[in-house]
Amino acid sequence: MQAYAAKLIDLIELKAENIARQWAADVMKHNRTPSYSSLPQDRVIERGVDFYMLFRKISLADVPFEAAKTFSWKYAEQCHRDKIPLHEAIYALILLRRHLWLYAEFQGVFVTALQMHQAVESLNRTITMYDYVAYQVIEKYQELINADVDKKLGSIKTLLMNKPIGGIKSIYKSGLMGILLLGACILTYYYHATLGTGVIFTHLFYIPIILASIWWGKKGIFVAIFLGVLILISHAVFLKAVPFVDDIIRALMFVVIGGVVGWLMDGIKKIEDLYKATI
């Protein structure tokens, strides 16, 4: 049985570039792998050669799964760099396996019925290697996507304050929000009760409103509602002679801004969870 597996491996190594060229010609025009059409042919052929030269290394390895990573991770990084979708990258692997067996059949590697029967071992080895590679490519590609998400959402993730500091997760958000709301109450009292004016100090209120929406999504709208109610009550108590219209508009804008930002943040979090879901 080992002799037939070795026979196939010898053929693969001897004719790796020929098989890879046939594969490249197919994958670059296949309707299921359109992203490959824009790549340089030499680059595509090189990936095919790397795949076919992996067989002997895996067959001699004590831990074949680990040996497969030398190709799998490189292939995933190359596909990700070239912006090839994961489903196309996996289908290209399917074509790699198919062209290997088409070439072996065309060359008449296994001729007799006995050889065809014994060739099952070679087929099993091929399938096993492909399974290892496919799994590792998907795993690595997902890891690269996660890194992209972290990078692109870097500033937002900093504002989210999701990482625990000193083992405490949410207390910093709640504490900071409490301080900001207390400051808003003091400002409102100072300008309405002491100065007796409705000067536009409320622009500062958008800081806690936006932070609350970023941290808690749609639930952050309660901060906007609180601040809106605060200025309306304060106006009614301390600024009875001043028209109500301006503060009503401000209160409505608090709610609108808080709701929109919260809705957007919930959408961003869902997208992040989708991309970072464990495969």
Please describe the structure with a list of short key phrases separated by commas or semicolons.
14 helices; 279 residues; Globin-like; mainly alpha
Briefly summarize what is shown:
The protein is mainly alpha-helical and 279 residues long. The protein has helices at 2-14, 16-27, 41-52, 54-60, 64-67, 69-81, 86-107, 113-118, 120-152, 154-160, 171-194, 206-216, 221-238, 245-275.
Characterization of the model:
The chain is an all-alpha fold. It has 14 helices and no strands. The chain is rod-shaped and about 95 Å long.
Topology:
Elements: H1 2-14, H2 16-27, H3 41-52, H4 54-60, H5 64-67, H6 69-81, H7 86-107, H8 113-118, H9 120-152, H10 154-160, H11 171-194, H12 206-216, H13 221-238, H14 245-275
Helix pairs in contact: 2-3, 2-7, 6-9, 7-9, 11-12, 11-13, 12-13, 12-14, 13-14
